[in-house]
Design goal:
With about 50 residues, the protein is α+β, with helices and mostly antiparallel strands. It has helices at about 5-15, 40-50, and strands spanning about 20-25, 30-35. About 40% of the residues lie in helices and about 20% in strands. A two-stranded antiparallel ribbon has the order 1-2.
Length: about 50
């Protein structure tokens, strides 16, 4: 993942009403920290976005 992917992912998570505590992207890795109960939904959103 490129850092350029972070913006669209955060936008889609916001639209899905998923709170993001922290996020970052570097060296082909994208990390998003969300509440545990939102984890499965967040994963689906990220996969759909990328």
């Amino acid at each position: 993942m490129a850092p350029a992917h972070l913006g669209p992912v955060l936008d889609r998570l916001r639209l899905a009403d998923i709170d993001v505590s922290a996020a970052g992207a570097a060296d082909g890795t994208l990390t998003v920290v969300v509440p545990r109960r939102d984890g499965p939904s967040a994963l689906r959103v990220v996969e759909e976005t990328l």
